[in-house]
Amino acid sequence: MDGQEEARGSTAQEPKSNLLGGSKVKRRTKKHENPGSDDRLEPQKQKTMKKEPARKSRTRNKEEKPDYYQSQIMDGKDGSMASQALKKEVPDGEKVKRRKRKDENIESDPDKKQKSKSKVSTKKVQKPDTDTATDTKPETEEFQNETYNTKKKIVKKPKNTKKVKEEEDVSETAPRPLHPSVGSHKFVGAHVSIQGGLWNAALEAKRIGAKAFGLFLRSQRSWNSKPLDEEVAEKFRRTCDDLGFGSRYILPHSPYLMNLGSPKPDVFQKSRAMLVEELNRCQKLGLTLYNIHPGSHIGEMPISKCLELIADGINCAHSQVPAVTVVLENMSCQGSTVGGRFEELRGIIDHINDKSRIGVCLDTCHAFAAGHNLSEKTGLQNMLDEFDKIVGLSYLKALHLNDSKGEVGCRLDRHENIGRGYIGVEGFRKVMNEPRFNEIPMILETPASSGFEDFSTEIDLLYSLCE
Predict the structure, then answer these.
(1) Where is this chain compositionally biased, Basic and acidic residues type (predicted)?
(2) Which of 20, 160, 370, 428 is most solvent-facing, going by the fewest CB within 10 Å?
């Protein structure tokens, strides 16, 4: 501390030293004459100097105001030790008597005793100067409690950045809680990415709090794909089992290139071969459902002929691959696509040989765009009644949950985030409380947008609508 005081400069110390005396004063009087100094005060002034550094060390910014302290000490007006030294000197014997009487009074009065201890404790506390204390350790810190005069040692655990990083990584991939108390019979999920491996789709679904999920089994925009490796298939099956995803709640989606109703022979043959290959992948992965867009006649053949071609392609695949159910998705009646009207779905089903392996997935956006006003109070009920009458609810295997950017009957396949489209939150409230949608996968296919960067937000929203 003495070194620190000297390092702060001598300009603030020299005037005080002239008053307080000592050997340093005698050496400096040649430069700084002080006619007010008195040699008779040497003993008293040297006693007071012993306390001066401790008292002044608590003033952090003393060096910032040297002129103020210098002028006050020189004038003897601030009540400082230099000013007190000018008072009449008290004999040593009288000082001892006064000190004894003071100690007796303190011992007899607990409050005074406590205050006395606090003062002693306060004098021992020396806060580090922020300008000079650069080598401080955040891990440990000793201090004196000024109120209770008890020495405490606070140990601050070193920050384990590695552990924190690991916790952050876990939080990013940790599964969100499912929703056991509300919508327990609803299995809401989303279409997730397979980047990094097919098994990552299950991990991502768990992370966002999904109870079901959809995925592509290959590139959705290419006719060619690598054969499915058995190790990849085994890892996918094991991951789904470990995370609790049953095959009935996993809905793979066909590539967009597939068109089983195409009038072009090359596209028709490629589409048939692709369907067989995809059903084989499902079988290796332990999946039992496979969702397809029925197809398009591209304006070159009657709709009835197109429906027959689609059914024929499905029958061909069924004959080569057992167990997997093909799920027809309703369309929005856009362009030359088929399947937008329930009668067209029924027309395909009528030509299927094994009807136990055919089903339907209702897309809310497509249904709305095709003319079913799900935003109205009775809109959902009316649609389901019509579906049951024409197709049959026994064929309903899954839902695609999407709001619509277009108005009812617009025939545009434009998905929107839940509650931001024309169907609206109230329309999906009816969907989430419809008992006929229990125990089937309900898959979100909404776009990423502000406020909906993650499917978990919409999953939480949908479950919050359950009553």
Answers:
(1) 32-67, 86-95, 102-113, 126-140
(2) 160
